[in-house]
Amino acid sequence: MEQINKNKLFFAACISLVVTSMTFAIRAGILTQLGVDFEINNKELGYINSMAFLGFPLAMLIGGLLYNALGPKKLLITAFVCHLLGLVLTIYAGGFWTLIISTFFIGFANGSVEAACNPMIADMYTNNRTAMLNKFHVWFPGGLVIGSLVSKFMTDAGLGWQLQIATMLIPTLIYGFLVFTQKFPKSENIESNTSENIKALGNPLFLFMIVCMTLTATSEFIPQQWVETILGSSGASPMLVLALVTGIMALGRFFAGPIVHKLNPIGVLFMSAIITASAIYFMSISEGGMIYVAAALFALGVCYFWPTMIGFTSEYTSKTGALGMSLMGGAGMFATSIWNPIIGSRLDTEKANALSTGLVGELADIEAGRAVLGFMVYFPLALVVLFGILFVMRKKIEEQRINSAPTEAA
């Protein structure tokens, strides 16, 4: 790896993740506009959203299986091509089905980014995997901040959703240039035998964590993806809520190293589940300015979920290699793709219930949003139990962890 410029590769990975997260933020910001322009209801919007979350795990499954054969460079080229296709097709979308197809391409690109970058970073920074994966994943909330502010200001300025989508072409071209001009490393510090990876998937700890990942991802992404629709009439600016949440998440992940070393990944996950459950409940009963306080607590709760789950997989079930990391992320996104239309449908149902009780306009929207958030509390509550079990058994589980050395600088 002496001839490999790790800093430039890490930077390229971060920019590709910025594009990934901007697709989430800007889509959340234009969801209402899409519904109006194409006469699409919340359930149909949920299906469109679900395509991003369905393309993601499919790309991670394929990328995880082929990582050892193709390497990270070819997977990132795939991501670049699919991002370009998805963004251009979205700009020229004509209705429900074209949005379904374009959103799937974007989801596939996003999954390809994760499938390529997670094992590449674990391999390059093998002595400090969870901390460096947290530092990489700073740019998911970082990109969400950028995307949510772009969406808010462009919407306020009366600029169409097509222009908002077009802004993402700029970072896409930047990371594409970096990918094509850099030399990438061969796997040296992760299990690169695919048959061994597949055998290791039967590890009970890995299977347990797959179940947990479906709950951590749903707890994190569903409230963020539906923030405008759920909180639009609550007295708080949905895009400012999203920017606040993601800004705090970025800071939390950037300084994750000392926290991970102090509590270890199991302690971090257990603490995160408790805070997230409290925050979503708080959000469901808050009004006006207090929603920002609840959102800040939510950000502290979910910020370590995704990268720590991926880092946990690479450290505690290391034999699963790139495939294990990809399947872990894929399971989270697949679960989110299933829950997206369900949440959209539930939102429609709760609004109908609110209207039937005599509430009208924004009051009905607020009541429906609170009901949906109240339902969402059950996901992190289940995690409190599951991660609590891991915490009790942590001494035994630590025996499966690969050796970890002091923090390695980026």
From TrEMBL:
Recorded family membership: Belongs to the major facilitator superfamily.
Residue intervals passing through the bilayer: 47-68, 75-93, 161-180, 200-218, 230-251, 263-283, 289-310, 322-343, 371-393
Annotated compartments: Endomembrane system
Top-level taxon in the UniProt lineage: Bacteria
Originating species: Croceitalea vernalis
Membrane topology, record value: Multi-pass membrane protein
Main location, first listed in the record: membrane
Entry protein name: MFS transporter
Domain Major facilitator superfamily (MFS) profile: 9-400
Keywords: Membrane, Transmembrane, Transmembrane helix, Transport
